[in-house]
User: What shape does this take?
Amino acid sequence: MRSHALGVVAIGMLAAVAPVSAQTWPSQPIKLIVPIATGSVTDIASRYLAQELQGRLGQPVVVINKPGGNMVIGAQECARAEPDGNTLCVLGSDAMSYNPYLLDQLSYDPEKDFKPVTNMYFVKEAVLAGANTPAKTIAEFKALAKSRPGTLNFGTLGGGSTLDIFRKWLSDEWKTEFTAVPYKGGSEIVNAALGGQIDVTRIGLGNVAGFFKDSRLKVLAVRSETRLLESPDTPTTTEAGIGAYPGVPWWGLVAPAKTPDAVVARVASEVREILSAPKSKDFMGKQFLETAVGTPEEFAAFLKKDRSATGELIAKYGHN
Assistant: This one.
């Protein structure tokens, strides 16, 4: 009896530690951690993905918003989650490529604490001129900036932010200077541009979707592969001559580092199918996002390359 009981216990222990496989997973609801507030473009896109995944996996996919700390709070929670396949995380360029260079004593390691699943999309952006800026094109604005160095205000999200790095890069490219004016978010920057407090900024197109026909704002160029249907006369940044800036914001899907490979492969396959579908491309396009999906290996290679390029960018422009 004693040996039989021990055998039962041993079998139970083996079952408890048995690896998760694509056949047995998922057996319970899945958490999708999003390190940004509800209502943002990334939150909207993440909830769309969660709904589509839920239908394919047969388990609820619950979005959990963990905003704050320049994406640190959400990334940290993801890194510390159980690697049982029941936690997935939407993280982007700020958390994975910028924070390691900008923040001292970062509470997570983007290379060691996560397992890449797949990239998801790039964010389309606009170079936006404020209400009081006379320039109507990039060429006109460049001439204005070169003639008035240090007098034009550039809306940023604070020193060392991606917007501030772009400000420094553009100053260097054009051999001029812009005065940084920090704000707490995209909506504040748009309001400052409407009120004439800033002359220019670079911002996600989702923040200005309702202002394409507002004469107070001028979209000078868009970072997009093609011109927008909503503003067909506006050139892309490549057409306008400022397409060489390497800091393109992106978002992708990762999991805690020791998540089983079988689960990662299954999720990656499902997400690729979801985001490659015409209806998903249409949905993402309406949020001014460019879908981009790949294998876990391709995403890992992309992350390595992006971190390296970001390190070079910040080494030159990331410090005041």
Notes: The radius of gyration is 22 Å. Residues 1-18 have pLDDT under 50 and may be disordered.
